[in-house]
Amino acid sequence: xxxxxxxxxxxxxxxxxxxxxxxxxxxxxxxxxxxxxxxxxxxxxxxxxxxxxxxxxxxxxxxxxxxxxxxxxxxxxxxxxxxxxxxxxxxxxxxxxxxxxxxxxxxxxxxxxxxxxxxxxxxxxxxxxxxxxxxxxxxxxxxxxxxxxxxxxxxxxxxxxxxxxxxxxxxxxxxxxxxxxxxxxxxxxxxxxxxxxxxxxxxxxxxxxxxxxxxxxxxxxxxxxxxxxxxxxxxxxxxxxxxxxxxxxxxxxxxxxxxxxxxxxxxxxxxxxxxxxxxxxxxxxxxxxxxxxxxxxxxxxxxxxxxxxxxxxxxxxxxxxxxxxxxxxxxxxxxxxxxxxxxxxxxxxxxxxxxxxxxx
Length: 360
Prior knowledge:
By secondary structure, this protein is an alpha/beta fold. It is about 50% helix and about 20% strand.
């Protein structure tokens, strides 16, 4: 006998679309409030007329407060949004997707953030979920290392300041600076995350790529030596995953070097290591801080990346030899699973040259 949920899907499947639409409206307002109707409609891909009725409904229910400045969630609206997340995961089949990716990549845990919307909205929602994960799962002592980039910068910005004080936890940058915007640098991100977690932090005053002689001298500086020492004892690592070409350009590599990297089939990057679609390292650029071989010694390694443009990069850079947890979004997850089906096979994550059929 089908349960109530299965019956609803068969008899009134349109309700799912209405539910997803209203969920996306609430979370979009949450991230960008106060938000005008026109911009709201543009972000979720509907007309103003279609959005107007939903805003009026939310206003009557006391979930949204509408004003000339735009819509804002009420405390009750925020509670409803949090409650809806579990239901949306069921509607979108998120738990089943998590099982597939967990098995495919050989990880201990996969968390997929559900929902739709534009790139900025999806990144903000992914960042919020990563922030919640850190507050709930990070211990009160040890060393947490974090890398830089747009995704982790969004995490740092989205994290609320928790009530718990982790005075025995130290947050450190997992790599040197790339010489880009300050808000994208690992130093800035580690300081902001430490403040949100109520932890200590240390900064690494080194560029990610340095002349070997210069680097050797700088490593003798007490402040630098302290951070490098902490990195060797990292308990938890939080890192992003980059698209190979984008990361090569961000590192300001010469055009001829970028051409070599791409000719070797690189699609993903992490810590200055470039991976092809089978997960093989095909190129390495000098990098200060955590190295790929260090990941096996770290208790928990959390990879964060979202968006369809990161799907190939995730497949290339994430596997059981390096990471324990992947936090991604439904768009990237769907793209990865589609690729699995197109290939008609899956691989053993410990040996990506051995392809194994599974009975999913």
